[in-house]
Write a sequence for this structure.
């Protein structure tokens, strides 16, 4: 579905991505893990057009992906950013409306669906998103990405700041998203859970891919277990 | 001083940008015209004249550096000054120290006379000072219009406007009249209806408006709205092209205007034509002043027989009976202001300026 | 003044015994004064052990009761956790404790001194240090300067010393710079001392926040989800780091965390909130087995 | 009686200010900076309107329409030159403010260069300069201005708060990158906003020109829009119009108060401003949303 | 010679004024659209003392600075606690109010007709010396704890307060220090031109100063000073281009802001000025 070849990203003097190759297969969950500062966010930002690469190509179903964020969204590639980035001054419902900006038809129905997923959001639908708690904002951010019925969903640490109960729900949700036929590229620090649901996984270190394979393979790699899963894995 | 064989350099300090740029440009162009005529006629004593024009956009700081530059870098003989008193006030001490004379039309007498009563050696005025000017108008109001109760509206933040009020009040009070009401505005104001209503309710016979042209336009428009309908006497800013600025020239009907010159006087005709030829536009009265400032300087250089600033300055102080476009110019060596200059009075009727002749108060003769 | 600086620059082993040392002005009521000032006789409100106590806190925003009638306390040298579902009001509690928001009702007492109602910076100087859930570093200052800022609050040179570079300035500034290195080293950020926060990844930014809060030498350190954005391996490292710092600086910590790993390993006492109110408290084991907590927060599948 | 007329006069002045304040508040609402280039834009529009009437001899309606269009186009240009690049570089808001002031100075000076050796004024458009209500009157242009600023206010409110596009504009005002991720074409939306700002500048320019004649510093009145929109509750467009009208009323009334007059009215306005902001720091129509930590 | 000296003198005065804006806007992030009014306060206080009471220069300057600080204190007390956006408005209003007061107290200040005949005490060496002093003071301020606190408060008031920074206090300190410098510039100006009038100190002058600071780089004192010298003399260099020069100037500023948004100097400081920062590093 998404083919990334030789992607190079620089921030002034910082080499954030070093000729990264990565494929995301249709209908699968592809997980991307790596330490802080490995370049995961940079990769997602580059795919969604927020960051311009210095070299490399990104193809969606065989044709080059536009570099303008709004066109990328129209192509069905939607990014749920790290750190939520909800529209602080808009109400919860308006935030969701913005999520559906490119697909306004059937908005009302999908809105109800989202509220079913996270009833807390319905309770707060008239509240300004900036005053939501951290976790509530995260729920909103996920829904805002989902509501446009994307074909590829890029999720950057969706479980960040969520209570354990909700973390589990989010991972269930991600699997349900896959079941809906949406392709997912997932960046996660909850490596174990991420790898457990992933069909495919990549490990990023210092801007380069150092390992890839099925979720199970990566999970089984001793280096990964040591570096990313810590004692919890044992 | 400059090399005796080269061109004679004359400096021009004007507001070419900023809020008073219309005047600055007019003075500069008038001066340019005069210089081109002088040069065409063979120059001054065979030497061509060259102008150095600097923009000071109403800033004393810029004026001081421009003056210094004209003196130190360009080595000019004399300088054509702006019609802005504030600039003159900040230049007077500098000019005193550096010796190059400035001929300007700043009407505040403090520009030409020091606090101790002595004239500033190098500052010269070539039109009636604010005192002469307001006395002419006050006298006209009292004698020709027969007004007794007068109102004044002026811009409190504008030195030109303020300087024309006190001499007017003094003259009126001393000559049997009475200034019944003085109202003010600030240069940021665009709405004078409250002030105009106050004038209307004060029962004044006539109102004196020593104000700038933009405000003059607004005043007439708003006076109509308020229904204020007493004679108004305006100053230089009501001179042409004032009526062109009104949405309806008849708004100005019944206004009395003082100007430096008469359109019907023969000396103007050629200059006006040449100006229109050269710049493609109608000259405003500041243009004629720019022209005359050059005439004064050129005359002084000829009489001094030198381009030494000090000599030229001394010669300017003895200018006498020089025929300019704005009248016969004689400068008093005591205060460096012109002597006996009259103003030409007009009344606007049906949007046209109708000349009432030159007016000189008894005391000025 | 001299004493303060010394206390701050040498790793303060004995600080616990002298709660006044190492912090700003007005912070050192003697132990003798401490216990009785404003503290009611309620359970656990007792003696020297309790450094921070909140009583009957209420806070609402419009119709939302973010915190209601909350009473909790933190004892010297302990690590206490505050957990609860998203939106339970945990961050709001931190905001009340650190003076970002004034409580609608209730009192907060720090080492015998009532701090509720004091302006935010005075609360900070009295000894409440914190990090933020959404990282709030100063983008205009580099990492070193971000940390330096916390040290500055304890520097006592005057404006004229600073403007004219009088000896007092040099003396204090040098001392601060020495300490700075220590704090940077504590979180292993020496390499990034002169980077701007925006150039760091999320995880490193969190460390800067931690160093900045540490440098203020708080009596009680409030950490709002410090392990968010770390992978399990990093969480382990983080726990070790925190344990080490706790020993070195004799910290008293109140921590909000969703990573049960951290809560279970570190805390001696856990408070659980939901809908603004406490629903349980106890040792980690008690909490882990409390059915109300399990159903509202942890989820039954959790081991 | 006299007092009632004063109120009408205040309303007239308020109408002038509100036409400026609307455009000012619109930019503040969306891009969160005080757009002082609007002053220069208004001046340029006034001259363009004048050239249009003089060259084609058009009536008021056609002049307004054409000038509004021209204003929109120039505003697009201003946005491109002064702001677009800043946005691409994610510059802090203060830079926009600085850029806008500089742009304003540039526009004013271009006008000075091309037009300053002469004075200009619009022809009279209205047969009657005032509309009388019994013993009271209001200037026809002021009445028209009041009408235009109120109706543009209404249209703006509907667009911003009732349409998806308007919501998108508000969204991008809060987080531009997130807005991009929603599929909002940020450049297009902002250009659209500036076009609107230009349209208001066009309308405002013509009316100001008619009322106050043409001079390069016409745009100085922008500071009244600034005061009104801040007092109104930063970026709140309704508040800006209310603020403008109150400012107009206040100024007119102060001029009539003996001992204050026009001269000292800035002092009184300053004191009132201070007291107002202390008592009601959210402005007239604003609500305080304390940032959540 | 006189010409260069006068340009140098005016530039030095501008440098003092710009230093004040650097402290207030660059460091503390406060937007003062009325800063020129503090220059007026300094200029008029010293000017009146010199002309009316024949006071010598030095005490007149001290009184001028004191008056500027007093005014800043009175404006600052209610204002600095307000929302940041309001500070521009209130200072703007203050500027207008000062001009109105100057215009309405003609018997003391000369009103619109200006205060004339101020003794010309400001010589070129005096102006240059004071400019250097102002820059050194501002640099010391920047690299003291107060400077850091200013930047922190500019970035994030809540976080700064949580680190023990007295937000209102540090803003007041920057405002007082800055306004003292502005008033100082005013006293120099008055005693150089010998003539001041209210119309010189309008808000556009404050805006021009802000532009200059941004041109050089709002985070760099070096940049602010270099820009003051550059933009202060640029109109002089362009003098021959007459009415075009302000347009050229604006285009230049637009270019810099667009293509180097953090100003010519960004965050760069002259090595000399960074000596403190470097020592800082070596300690590590
Ligand atoms: N805007 C920026 N300017 C400069 N450097 C940046 C910027 N954004 C990221 N970097 C740098 O690029 C590298 C990769 O950062 P990135 O945010 O992609 O990491 P990450 O894998 O998402 O880390 P984390 O798990 O902490 O979120 C880091 O070294 C970071 O410091
Ligand atoms: N400034 C505010 N205005 C309005 N509502 C607020 C404000 N601050 C918090 N709230 C509300 O109060 C409740 C508690 O928020 P808080 O941030 O304290 O939750 P939390 O326990 O920290 O959650 P999380 O774990 O998700 O961060 C939430 O429902 C939130 O929407
Ligand atoms: Mg990341
Ligand atoms: Mg929280």
């Amino acid at each position: 579905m998404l083919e990334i070849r030789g992607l190079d990203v620089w921030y002034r003097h910082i080499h954030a991505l070093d000729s990264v190759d990565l494929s995301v297969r249709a209908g699968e969950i592809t997980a991307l893990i790596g330490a802080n500062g490995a370049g995961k966010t940079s990769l997602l930002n580059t795919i969604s057009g927020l960051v311009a690469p210095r070299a490399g190509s990104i193809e969606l179903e065989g044709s080059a992906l536009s570099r303008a964020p709004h066109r990328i969204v129209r192509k069905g590639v939607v990014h749920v950013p790290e750190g939520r980035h909800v529209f602080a001054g808009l109400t919860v419902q308006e935030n969701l409306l913005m999520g559906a900006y490119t697909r306004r038809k059937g908005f009302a129905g999908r809105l109800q669906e989202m509220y079913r997923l996270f009833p807390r959001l319905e309770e707060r639908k008239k509240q300004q998103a900036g005053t939501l708690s951290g976790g509530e904002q995260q729920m909103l951010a996920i829904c805002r990405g989902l509501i446009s019925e994307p074909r590829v969903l890029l999720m950057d640490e969706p479980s960040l700041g969520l209570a354990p109960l909700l973390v589990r729900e989010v991972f269930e949700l991600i699997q349900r998203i896959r079941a809906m036929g949406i392709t997912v590229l997932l960046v996660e620090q909850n490596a174990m859970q991420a790898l457990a649901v992933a069909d495919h996984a990549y490990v990023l270190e210092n801007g380069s891919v150092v390992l890839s394979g099925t979720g199970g393979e990566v999970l089984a790699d001793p280096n990964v277990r040591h570096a990313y899963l810590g004692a919890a894995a044992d | 001083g400059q090399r005796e064989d080269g061109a004679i350099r004359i400096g021009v300090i004007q507001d070419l940008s900023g809020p008073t740029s219309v005047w600055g440009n007019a003075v500069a162009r008038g001066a340019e015209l005069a210089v081109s005529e002088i040069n065409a006629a063979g120059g001054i004593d065979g030497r061509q004249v060259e102008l150095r024009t600097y923009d000071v956009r109403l800033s004393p700081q810029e004026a001081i550096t421009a003056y210094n530059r004209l003196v130190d870098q360009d080595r000019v003989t004399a300088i054509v000054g702006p019609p802005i008193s504030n600039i003159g006030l900040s230049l007077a001490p500098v000019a005193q120290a550096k010796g190059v004379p400035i001929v300007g039309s700043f009407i505040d007498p403090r520009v030409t006379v020091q606090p101790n009563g002595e004239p500033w050696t190098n500052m010269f005025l070539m039109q009636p000072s604010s005192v002469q000017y307001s006395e002419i108008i006050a006298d006209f109001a009292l004698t020709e219009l027969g007004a007794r109760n007068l109102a004044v509206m002026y811009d409190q933040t504008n030195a030109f406007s303020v300087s024309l009020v006190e001499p007017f009040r003094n003259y009126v009070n001393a000559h049997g009249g009475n200034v019944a009401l003085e109202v003010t505005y600030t240069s940021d104001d665009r709405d004078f209806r409250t002030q105009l209503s106050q004038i209307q309710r004060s029962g004044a016979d006539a109102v004196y408006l020593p104000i700038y042209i933009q405000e003059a336009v607004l005043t007439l428009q708003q006076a109509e709205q308020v229904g204020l309908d007493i004679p108004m006497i305006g100053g230089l800013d009501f001179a042409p092209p004032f009526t062109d600025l009104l949405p309806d020239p008849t708004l100005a009907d019944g206004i009395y205007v003082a100007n430096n010159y008469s359109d019907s006087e023969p000396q103007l005709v050629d200059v006006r034509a040449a100006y229109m030829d050269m710049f493609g536009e109608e000259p405003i009265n500041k243009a004629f002043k720019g022209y005359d400032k050059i005439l004064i300087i050129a005359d002084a250089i000829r009489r001094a027989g030198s381009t030494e600033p000090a000599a030229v300055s001394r010669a300017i102080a003895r200018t006498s009976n020089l025929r300019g476009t704005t009248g016969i110019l004689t400068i008093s060596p005591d205060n460096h202001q012109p002597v006996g200059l009259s103003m030409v009075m007009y009344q606007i009727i049906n949007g046209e300026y109708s000349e009432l002749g030159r007016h000189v108060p008894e005391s000025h003769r | 003044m001299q004493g303060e600086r010394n206390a701050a620059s040498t790793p303060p082993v004995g600080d616990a015994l002298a709660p006044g040392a190492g912090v700003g002005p007005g912070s050192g009521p003697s132990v003798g004064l401490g216990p009785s000032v404003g503290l009611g006789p309620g359970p656990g409100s007792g003696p020297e052990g309790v450094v921070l106590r909140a009583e009957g806190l209420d806070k609402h925003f419009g119709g939302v009761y973010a915190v209601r009638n909350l009473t909790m306390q933190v004892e010297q040298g302990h690590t206490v956790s505050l957990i609860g579902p998203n939106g339970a009001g945990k961050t709001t509690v931190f905001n009340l404790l650190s003076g970002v928001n004034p409580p609608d009702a209730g009192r907060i007492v720090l080492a015998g001194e009532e701090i509720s109602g004091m302006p935010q910076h005075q609360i900070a100087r009295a000894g409440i240090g914190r990090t933020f859930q959404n990282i709030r570093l100063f983008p205009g200052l580099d990492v070193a300067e971000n940390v330096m800022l916390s040290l500055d609050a304890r520097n006592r040179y005057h404006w004229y010393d600073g403007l004219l570079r009088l000896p007092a300035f040099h003396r204090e500034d040098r001392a601060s710079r020495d300490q700075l290195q220590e704090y940077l080293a504590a979180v292993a950020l020496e390499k990034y001392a002169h980077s701007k926060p925006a150039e760091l990844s999320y995880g490193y930014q969190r460390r800067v926040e931690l160093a900045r809060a540490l440098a203020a030498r708080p009596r009680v350190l409030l950490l709002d989800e410090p392990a968010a954005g770390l992978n399990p391996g990093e969480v382990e490292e983080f726990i070790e780091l925190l344990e080490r710092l706790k020993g070195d600086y004799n910290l008293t910590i109140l921590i909000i965390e969703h990573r049960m790993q951290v809560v279970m390993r570190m805390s001696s006492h856990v408070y659980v909130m939901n809908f603004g109110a406490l629903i349980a408290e106890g040792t980690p084991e008690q909490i882990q087995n409390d059915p109300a907590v399990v159903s509202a927060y942890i989820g039954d599948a959790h081991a | 009686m006299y007092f009632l007329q004063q109120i009408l006069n205040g309303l007239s002045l308020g109408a002038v200010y509100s036409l400026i304040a609307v455009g000012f508040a619109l930019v503040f609402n969306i891009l969160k900076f005080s757009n002082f280039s609007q002053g220069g834009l208004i001046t340029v529009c006034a001259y363009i309107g004048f050239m249009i009437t003089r060259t084609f001899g058009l009536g008021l309606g056609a002049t307004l329409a054409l000038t509004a269009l021209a204003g929109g186009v120039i505003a697009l240009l201003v946005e491109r030159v002064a702001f677009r690049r800043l946005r691409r570089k994610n510059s802090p808001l203060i830079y926009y403010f600085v850029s806008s002031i500089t742009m304003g100075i540039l526009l004013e000076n271009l006008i000075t260069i091309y037009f300053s050796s002469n004075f200009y004024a619009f022809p009279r458009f209205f047969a009657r300069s005032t509309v009388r209500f019994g013993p009271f009157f209001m200037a026809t242009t002021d009445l028209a201005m009041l009408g235009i600023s109120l109706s543009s206010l209404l249209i703006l409110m509907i667009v911003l708060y009732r349409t998806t596009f308007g919501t998108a504009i508000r969204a991008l005002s809060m987080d531009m990158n997130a807005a991009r991720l929603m599929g909002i074409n940020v450049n297009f939306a902002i250009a659209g906003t500036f076009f609107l700002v230009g349209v208001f500048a066009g309308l405002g320019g013509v009316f100001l020109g008619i009322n106050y004649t043409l001079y390069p510093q016409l745009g100085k009145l922008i500071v009244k829009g600034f005061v009104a929109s801040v007092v109104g509750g930063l970026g709140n467009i309704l508040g800006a119009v209310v603020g403008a009208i109150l400012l107009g009323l206040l100024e007119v009334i102060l001029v009539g108060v003996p001992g204050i007059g026009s001269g000292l009215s800035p002092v009184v306005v300053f004191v009132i401003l201070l007291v107002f902001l202390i008592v009601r720091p959210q402005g007239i129509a604003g609500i305080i949303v304390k940032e959540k930590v | 010679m006189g010409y260069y000296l006068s340009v140098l003198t005016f530039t030095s005065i501008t440098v003092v004024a710009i230093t004040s804006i650097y402290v207030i806007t660059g460091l503390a992030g406060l937007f003062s659209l009325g800063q020129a009014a503090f220059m007026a306060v300094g200029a008029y206080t010293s000017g009146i003392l010199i002309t009316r009471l024949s006071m010598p220069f030095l005490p007149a300057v001290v009184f001028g600075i004191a008056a500027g600080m007093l005014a800043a204190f009175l404006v600052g007390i209610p204002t600095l606690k307000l929302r940041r956006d309001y500070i521009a408005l209130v200072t703007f209003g203050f500027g207008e109010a000062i001009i109105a007061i100057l215009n309405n107290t003609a018997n003391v200040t000369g009103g619109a007709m200006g205060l004339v005949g101020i003794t010309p005490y400001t010589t070129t060496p005096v102006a240059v010396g004071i400019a250097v002093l102002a820059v050194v003071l501002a640099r010391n301020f920047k690299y003291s704890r107060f400077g850091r606190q200013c930047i922190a408060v500019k970035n994030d008031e809540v976080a700064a307060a949580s680190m023990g920074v007295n937000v209102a206090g540090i803003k007041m300190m920057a405002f007082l220090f800055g306004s003292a410098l502005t008033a100082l510039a005013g006293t120099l100006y008055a005693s150089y031109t010998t003539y001041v009038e209210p119309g010189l100190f309008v808000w556009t002058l404050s805006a021009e100063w802000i532009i200059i600071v941004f041109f050089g780089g709002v985070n760099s004192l070096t940049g602010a000073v270099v820009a003051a010298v550059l933009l202060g003399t640029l109109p002089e260099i362009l003098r021959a281009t007459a009415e075009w020069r302000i347009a050229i100037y604006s285009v230049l500023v637009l270019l810099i802001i667009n293509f180097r948004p953090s100003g010519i100097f960004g965050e760069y400081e002259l090595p000399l000025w960074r000596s403190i920062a470097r020592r800082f590093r070596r300690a590590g």
Summary: DSSP finds ten helices and ten strands in chain A. Chain A touches chain C through 42 residues (CB under 8 Å).
